[in-house]
Amino acid sequence: MLMNDLELLEEKISHLQRMVDDLSESLVRHTAEIDQLNRHVAMLMQREASREADGGGGIILTDERPPHY
Question: Considering just the CA atoms, what is the radius of gyration of the chain in Å?
């Protein structure tokens, strides 16, 4: 009976270790993806700030009628 309990515990520990490894790999992938997205957002913000500083920002005219009227 004791041997059977020990085998069950070893099996559970093995499954838990695999789950922890999988979660760790997933966390590493997500961290890399978040870092990449943060770099893209920073680049876009810098590009937009540069565009606004150059006066090239688009003018939004909400009161104008569209050309098809």
Answer: 28
Query: Is the alpha carbon torsion for 16, 17, 22, 23 positive or negative?
Result: positive
How far apart are alpha carbons 44 and 37 in whole angstroms?
10
Q: What is the pLDDT along the chain (69 residues), one digit of tens a residue?
A: 677 999 999 999 999 999 999 999 999 999 999 999 999 999 999 999 999 888 855 566 567 676 776
> Cα separation of 58 and 62, whole Å?
12
Instruction: Spell 27-58 as b/e; 16+ CB within 10 A means b.
Output: eeeeeeeeeeeeeeeeeeeeeeeeeeeeeeee
- The pTM assigned to this predicted structure is 0.61
